Amino acid sequence: xxxxxxxDDFAEAGRKLFAGAADFVWAASRIxxxxxxxxxxxxxxxxxxxxxxxxxxxxxxxxxLARTSxxxxxxxxxxxxxxGGRLRLVDMPGYGFAAAGKEKVEAWTRLIHAYLRGRANxxxxxxxxxxxxxxxANDAGVLxxxxxxxxxxxxxxxxxxxxxxxxxxxRVGETxxxxxRRPAAFPAVQxxxxxxxxxxxxxxxxxxxxxxxxxxxx
Length: 218
Prior knowledge:
218 residues, alpha/beta, 19% strand, globular, GTP-binding, septation, GTP binding, cell division, GTP-bd
């Protein structure tokens, strides 16, 4: 099959990728309970209640593939989803939710860091940032860890529909400037809205392009 070569091709490849089957396949609460490293994985990380599960559902066009909740800290495991037999998508526990209890937060943090450091088939981490608030100190700590581990990541702004006028453009610009010198950061910041669909096709296309770069032609 011919590999996509331009923006339109990747947009169509991304649409087809996420239009197929999407299934929950594994949940891991400990590093010794991870599934075998098979195929290409991408992971979604972010502060608690930033909208990771909602974005997974929006990407796949399913309302309940990933559990969503208005209660921060609901996702307490690494949840693995198979996308059309070609990609594994990992919904990670949110970070920075102190109300969950110090011991539990520390356990989640160790799990997240161990996964990020030791997963050879992890192609990219999409770090979700609430567009209304921008990068915070605990986000910067996660980015520092990804830079140190040389794990490729891209910033995805969630809830972007809630910024009006030129506020979103300014947020994108300041975020791109903040990561400009970070060695593992993908330079482009992607604004999204799970509610309106803003940026969802572009994010699908970005993931399709990543697959092609890893030798997984659609």
